[in-house]
């Protein structure tokens, strides 16, 4: 069945079944379609399973495109926020399986009423779409009676040396990360969630990203950032089950109970001074990163995945990988064993009034405890990394990512409101 007919039929027929509580996989079986692919096997066009112990879009093999959005909740009624999360979950479950956002879709409803879907993804396959929600610290103020349920790990990040954060591009009550292999599919998903949330949430900021800058599976090649270097070589991978348990997923003892199986997301928009970097010699670029630019190997070694040898010295007796090289400062051995799962993306937001590219990295990392993992790594980088001469952190966010939606009777954040 083609992508066109699948979206149309599911939007106008089996959509009602899904909305009434049937699982997405069950709805697809009614049309003799295969169930969603597991995250370890998803292709560029397949759908990713929405239901599960953990939210998709975290350890899922990183897709090529991003649309990230942060929202402020503008209703003051807890019941309206709870209802919104239920509506968002239902729409997300549908869209991640290649369906339209609402029961009647873009063209199947009452002509005199607004459509249930904006329509720009009609005819497109699911494209590996994942939607991942998070709750910011500001959601736990006095508005909704949630203050007593705020996780201890959701306290504010410290201010790091060199930060030039823009408040309007930071924080947020809610965030939604849409990743897909087609930018139109990702944009469509965020657009429809914003449409559904009208009157209850307002968009605080959003960010488009392209060209993932990390691999989250051993089946993926390591990508390059806009500085031309391979990025995320030592990233946690979905195949690293034991390390994901230790470094990614919130355990029962971490508390609170509603976060068990969840994680924490840190976002940082990092603008690169592209023109200055492009005038820097290759030798200096490699010394700053501590890796060669071609293969991505640690200096003094041959292969990308060779473990860095920080004791190895050059002919002059100095370490081949300098004391302030990026790879040394960010390495787990320099940070008490702290590891992150990174899902960053390149961005280019046009150019500024001086003709310089407004470009860089939208950094995203997931971790079990940001204050024990992200904070020490970033503190070391902010203090000593020579790369800071070429970058500027302009936004920051921290969000509690709840566990996955178990089935069609569950919804994002249900345990939080229980």
Automatic annotation (TrEMBL):
Show where the Dyp-type peroxidase C-terminal domain sits.
Answer: 222-405
Q: Is RNA-binding set as a keyword in this record?
A: no
The transmembrane residues are none
Its EC number is 1.11.1.-
Keywords in UniProt for this one?
Answer: Heme, Iron, Lyase, Metal-binding, Oxidoreductase, Peroxidase, Signal
- This protein's major location comes to other
Name the job this protein performs: Involved in the recovery of exogenous heme iron. Extracts iron from heme while preserving the protoporphyrin ring intact.
Name the protein family.
Belongs to the DyP-type peroxidase family.
Return the protein name: Deferrochelatase
Q: Which organism is it from?
A: Nonomuraea roseola
Gene that encodes it: efeB
């Amino acid at each position: 069945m083609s992508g066109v007919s699948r979206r149309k039929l599911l939007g106008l027929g089996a959509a009602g079944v899904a909305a009434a509580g049937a699982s997405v996989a069950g709805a697809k079986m009614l049309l003799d379609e295969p169930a969603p692919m597991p995250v370890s096997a998803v292709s560029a066009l397949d759908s990713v399973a929405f239901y599960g112990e953990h939210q998709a879009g975290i350890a899922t093999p990183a897709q090529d495109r991003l649309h990230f959005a942060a929202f402020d909740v503008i209703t003051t009624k807890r019941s309206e926020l709870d209802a919104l999360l239920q509506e968002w979950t239902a729409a997300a479950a549908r869209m991640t399986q290649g369906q339209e956002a609402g029961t009647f879709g873009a063209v199947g409803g009452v002509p005199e009423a607004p459509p249930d879907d904006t329509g720009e993804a009609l005819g497109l396959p699911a494209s590996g779409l994942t939607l991942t929600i998070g709750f910011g610290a500001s959601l736990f103020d006095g508005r909704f009676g949630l203050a007593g349920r705020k996780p201890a790990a959701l306290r504010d990040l410290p201010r790091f040396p060199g930060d030039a954060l823009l408040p309007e591009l930071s924080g947020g009550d809610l965030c939604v990360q849409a990743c897909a292999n087609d930018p139109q599919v990702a944009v469509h998903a965020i657009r429809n969630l914003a449409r559904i949330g009208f009157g209850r949430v307002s968009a605080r900021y959003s960010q488009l990203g392209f060209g993932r800058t990390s691999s989250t599976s051993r089946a993926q090649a390591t990508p390059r950032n806009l500085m031309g270097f391979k990025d995320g070589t030592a990233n946690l991978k979905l195949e690293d089950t034991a390390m994901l348990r230790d470094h990614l997923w919130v355990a029962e003892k971490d508390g609170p109970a509603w976060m068990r199986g969840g994680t924490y997301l840190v976002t940082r928009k990092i603008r690169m001074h592209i023109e200055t970097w492009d005038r820097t010699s290759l030798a200096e670029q490699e010394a700053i990163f501590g890796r060669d630019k071609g293969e991505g190997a640690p200096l003094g070694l041959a292969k990308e995945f060779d473990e860095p040898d920080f004791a190895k010295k050059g002919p002059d007796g100095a370490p081949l990988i300098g004391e302030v090289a990026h790879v040394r400062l960010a390495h787990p051995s320099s940070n008490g064993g702290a590891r992150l799962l990174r899902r960053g993306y390149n961005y280019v937001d046009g150019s500024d009034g001086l003709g310089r590219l407004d470009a860089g990295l939208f950094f995203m990392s997931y971790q079990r405890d940001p204050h024990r993992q992200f904070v020490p790594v970033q503190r070391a980088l902010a203090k000593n990394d020579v790369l800071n001469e070429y970058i500027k952190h302009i936004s920051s966010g921290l969000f509690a990512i709840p566990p996955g939606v178990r089935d069609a009777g569950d919804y994002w954040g249900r345990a939080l409101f229980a």
